[in-house]
Amino acid sequence: MTLPPGFINQMHILLGEETEEFLMAMQQSPATSVRLNRRKPGADFPDGTPVKWCRCGVYLPQRPVFTLDPLLHAGAYYVQDASSMIYHEVACRLAEKFKTVSGEQQFSPLSLLDLCAAPGGKTTAMIDALPDGSRIVANEYVARRAIILKENIAKWGYPSVAVTNLDSSVFAENGDSFDIVAVDAPCSGEGMMRKETAAVEQWSIDLINQCAALQKDILANAVKAIKPGGFLIYSTCTFNRTENEENAGFIADVLGLEPVDMDFPEEWGIPRGIGTDLPVYRFMPHKTRGEGLFLAVFRKPGTWNPSNITASGNFRSKTSGRNDRHRGKAISGVKPGHLRDEIPSIEEILSIDFDRSLFPEAEVSLQQAVSYLRREAIVLPPDVPKGLVTVTYRHLPLGMAKNIGNRANNLYPKNWRILMK
Annotated catalytic residue: which of 54, 56, 187, 237? Predict the structure, then answer.
């Protein structure tokens, strides 16, 4: 990989004597890692090694063909860069802080907005860290990315999630509604150069400045959506100070939030920020086993009051009547009174709240599961009743089929099917 000369010069200024070590690390292959779903046990990686900063993260010795693993499609795990898994630990620590402030013995549900959520890795990491019953809004401004986000959230199976496709200003207009707001901001992507050639090809100083300006706009809207005493998580997958430390300074000095030191253990090897006294963190490929990531956490001044979390339904913003883009569709479990002759949605089937007693289940082999996920017709065991059945692999639901005896009509969503042969 040939890095842009301007980028190399920037890193010399940023890192000084560490630059050569950094550039050597940038030529190495990225690590492969996965994060397990605590609410859908079943995935097992016996040859893996733990990710230090994520109790459910695992490094793999080599990259398998994930697309052909039914457990991925069932939501048993998520393929995620290890650096990004820090979101799980941060959310765990923020939940502890809320518990301390409330003075309660047990964790209470929280409200979370992930403002730039696609493809869903950081959202699902936080979902697994927050107390059961917490309400999540996963938002993505780019419509085509929001479609991918919705699929990944559905597979993860947590029922109290609304996936929205809105501008960040809509949440600002709604006012301070969320205990935690996460902004994994659109950025110049320098930290992804080992993985994506597009990140190398698109690099320029102009792009950095454009991204920094956009990030400030998003952050200004994000702060308005945080409840007093709530928290902001800010991150990028880039290296330059303009989008990182300087924007952290903007959050503190202009937006008025208080920096929060996450106090990560030294043995995790996560460097602090560069040229700042703020307690911010950098995942650097020559220091940490993962891709580039910048992380900062802030608290909004004021007295925090617990959220009144109720059963989740469709998420509508106060401005939702303006046009269809201002409407967010909730992904929830099976509705009460669901009838046996009704075909449940794929979101319902994959939800951890799905009432699995409603339909007979057909446990299939690996080969059958892959055929099912390709949306091919499959033949179920002879003892499976005719009619609607839930297809499972290692006892995790994949979707529905209509068994007619000699074969089963495949009801897996066409736009989710595996295309790889």
Answer: 237
